[in-house]
Amino acid sequence: MTLALQIILVITSVLMTVFVLLHKGKGGGLSSLFGGGVQSNLSGSTVVEKNLDRYTVVMGIIWITCIIALNLLQAFGA
User: Fold this and answer.
1) Are the C-beta atoms of residues 71 and 2 closer than 8 Å to each other?
2) 63 CB burial (10 A radius; 0-12, 13-18, 19+)
3) What are 13-42's pLDDT values in tens digits?
4) Which of 8, 20, 59, 60 is the most buried (most CB within 10 A)?
5) Which DSSP category does 55 fall into?
6) Where is the chain membrane-spanning (predicted)?
7) What is the distance of C-alpha 4 from the center of its chain?
8) Cα 64 from chain centre
9) CA-CA distance, 17 to 59, in Å (whole number)?
10) Phi/psi of residue 40, each to 5°?
11) From the CA atom positions of the chain, what is the Rg in Å?
12) Per-domain residue ranges for the chain?
């Protein structure tokens, strides 16, 4: 159980890092390398950005849940 949670934690950490770096910032960031900088700034938030937001939030929830579960397993010695 602990090993599975640790693996999930590492995978979600890497995915969250990638998702955060793909977000469109003021300067474009890494998203401009993959074609995100071509879009106009006047168009607002795109469907891709909204989906990226959702994926980032889901990864964050899974990440926090794994941290809490690992801490509880360590505290209660299961």
Assistant:
1) no
2) middle
3) 999 999 999 887 666 556 566 665 555 555
4) 59
5) H
6) 6-22, 55-76
7) 19
8) 11
9) 10
10) -80, 145
11) 16
12) 47-73
